[in-house]
Automatic annotation (TrEMBL):
This is Amidohydrolase. It is an enzyme of class 3 (hydrolase). It comes from Ornithinimicrobium kibberense. Keywords: Hydrolase. GO terms for molecular function: hydrolase activity. Residues 55-502 form the Amidohydrolase domain. Its EC number is 3.5.-.-. SUPFAM superfamilies: Composite domain of metallo-dependent hydrolases (SSF51338), Metallo-dependent hydrolases (SSF51556). It holds the Pfam family Amidohydro_3. InterPro entries: Amidohydro_3 (IPR013108), Metal-dep_hydrolase_composite (IPR011059), Metal_Hydrolase (IPR032466).
Length: 505
């Protein structure tokens, strides 16, 4: 029997179920990947490994419940456009990168991170054609919901001709073709290896990977190549559902040839767009939406089409991860969950009607939210939804109604950093700025409890643990900014998955 004894650690109390909330040191014994005992001065099993805790703090391993792992891996090699304040600045960044040369094997200059909702004018194809008439240029928005391409890129990728950006379903199809270009796979996987190493150094033991395509195949390769051995739940989109249905794989089933680390996750459905692309489906028009083709955004799926997908998922034993950002989309999502009895979560739920919160509480549906989005979206929220800001990122309202909350990043939209997500949930703004709508903030305990996949340091739990140099909760009475600053500064010294040390010591 493989075992690991972690000696002399203090359990971070998440809900009063810790063995000793006072912080008295205990030993934690993990055998065959499962915590079997938590008590003072446990004997070390013969032949077992031992890790000296030295009074450090222990927490269940952290999870990010919404990641696009290949896209997150690619961010390192893409032109950073997140600081562009208008179209001209973005084009200038493209001009400079082209002057430097050093394009990837694909020959395509790819950028990431622009957010044009607050720009004085919309991006145009002509802007990029002027500086890159011969080199394909693909600029991916910071929310991932549109691409800004020049004419050469449109021709190369078979994209529909547009004067400006290509959004939503048309864009997702183009993005898939971008991933099939020469060298794209190797470039992505090299980035993934670095991204996973960074994740385990932050105490991440598991992610829900909602990448397009066939992520289970990529994870088999990663396990075979001995990348950091964290856990993954892999999603499937409607386009790939037939393959999963034919294989009879249900949510929670282990993906073969992954050493038990990778399991089937949810059916991912994108029911509306995003705030920054101004395609999120709302009950009322955007305040600045007069010039939009759809002033209130629009659904990607009809109500009956969505119900059919959820009913199929339920029959197949699949949970559902249903992307819904606008309040009309959230209402549609709740109706579909209610009619079908499907289980899972609503992803993002950025704008919610108060009356829908009471509908939600009666359903077996999580709120899978990304608090760090509000750091990027506050300005555009106040521009597009100025009369609705009190109904955005309603984390406290979810918890107060008994709705389960789990935190994630939506990386690459926000960094894969659970400490950043928790801090943003506690202090809804920059560390040196105001706590925006503090009535919707979480406490540090609540934020961490929403980051550990429902687990606690106790017998019967998976042997996925994180050792911290500092108490992440700090002393009572701190301000929200002080609490968030402490969370951001927490130092992870060891990460353990299934009783195996995968980072630190």
């Amino acid at each position: 029997m493989d075992s690991l004894l972690i000696r002399g650690v203090r359990v971070v109390p998440l809900d009063g179920t810790a063995p000793d909330p006072s912080g008295t040191p205990v030993d934690v014994l993990v055998e065959d990947g499962t915590v079997t005992e938590v008590a003072p001065t446990l004997p070390r099993p013969p032949g077992g490994e031992q890790l000296e805790g030295g009074g450090r703090w222990v927490l269940p391993g952290l999870w990010d419940h919404h990641v696009h792992v290949r896209q997150w891996g690619l961010v390192r090699s893409r032109l950073d456009l997140s600081g562009a304040r208008d179209a001209d600045e973005a084009v200038d960044l493209v001009r400079r990168r082209l002057a430097e040369g050093n394009l990837p094997t694909s020959g395509v200059l790819t950028g990431w991170g622009h957010r044009p909702a607050t720009w004085g004018r919309d991006p145009s194809t002509a802007d990029l054609d002027a500086v890159a008439p011969d080199v394909p240029v693909v600029l991916i928005s910071g929310d991932g919901h549109h691409g800004w391409l020049n004419s050469r890129a449109m021709d190369l990728l078979g994209a529909p001709r547009r004067d400006g950006v290509i959004a939503e379903a048309e864009w997702f199809a183009v993005y898939e073709r971008l991933g099939g270009l020469p060298g794209a796979h190797d470039e992505a996987e090299a980035g993934v290896a670095l991204a996973l190493a960074d994740a385990v150094a932050l105490g991440v033991v598991g992610i829900t990977d909602l990448e397009f395509g066939r992520p289970w195949a990529h994870w088999r390769d990663r396990v075979a190549e001995h990348l950091p051995a964290l856990r993954a739940r892999v999603g499937v989109y409607p386009e790939g559902l037939e393959e999963v249905l034919a294989a009879g794989v249900r949510t929670g089933d282990t993906i073969r040839a992954t050493d038990g680390l990778v399991t089937m996750g949810p059916l991912k459905i994108i029911s509306d767009g995003s705030l920054n692309t101004r395609t999120a489906w709302c009950c009322q028009p955007y305040a600045d939406g007069a010039s939009l083709a759809e002033p209130a955004g629009a659904p990607n799926l009809g109500g009956e089409e969505l119900v059919d997908l959820l009913a199929t998922a339920r029959r197949a034993g699949l949970e559902v991860a249903l992307h819904a950002i606008g309040d009309a989309a959230v209402h549609q999502a709740l109706t579909a969950f209610g009619r079908t009895g499907a289980r899972g979560g609503i992803e993002h739920a950025q704008l919610v009607a108060v009356e829908d919160l009471d509908r939600w509480r009666r359903l077996p549906v999580r709120a899978s939210v990304q608090p760090a989005h509000l750091l990027d979206d506050r300005v555009v929220t106040e521009q597009c939804w100025p009369d609705r800001t009190d109904r955005t990122f309603t984390l406290r309202s979810f918890l107060d109604r008994g709705i389960e909350v789990v935190l994630g990043s939506d990386a690459p939209v926000s960094p894969l950093d659970p400490w950043l997500a928790a801090a943003a949930a506690v202090h809804r703004g920059p560390l040196d700025g105001e706590n925006w709508h503090p009535e919707q903030a979480l406490t540090p305990v609540e934020a961490l409890a929403a980051s550990v996949d429902g687990r606690r340091v106790r017998a019967g739990a998976p042997g996925d643990l994180v050792l911290l140099e500092d108490d992440p909760l700090g002393a009572p009475g701190a301000t929200s900014a002080e609490q968030a600053r402490r969370l951001r500064a927490t130092r992870v010294s060891a990460t353990v998955v299934a009783g195996t040390l995968i980072h630190g010591g």
